[in-house]
Amino acid sequence: MIYLTTTVISVRVREEVKRLLEEGGIDVNEEVRRFLEDLALKVKIRRYVSMWDELLENIKPSEEGFSVGSVREDREGH
Q: What pLDDT, on the 0 to 100 scale, is given for residue 65?
């Protein structure tokens, strides 16, 4: 069995807001959890994109026509 570490986050909202959401059949806890998990994923993606940008900024682009020549070479080799 896998155990995930969790933490509690408390958020204060107006009582009317909570009541309206619950009357509308909204599971407030689940919606907040899902929103925060999606937001965390976006932050993670931004970090990876930033890392990739740093890795690629010093790499020179390929010469003009490199891909055409490479594909042609592969085709002729078979």
A: 82
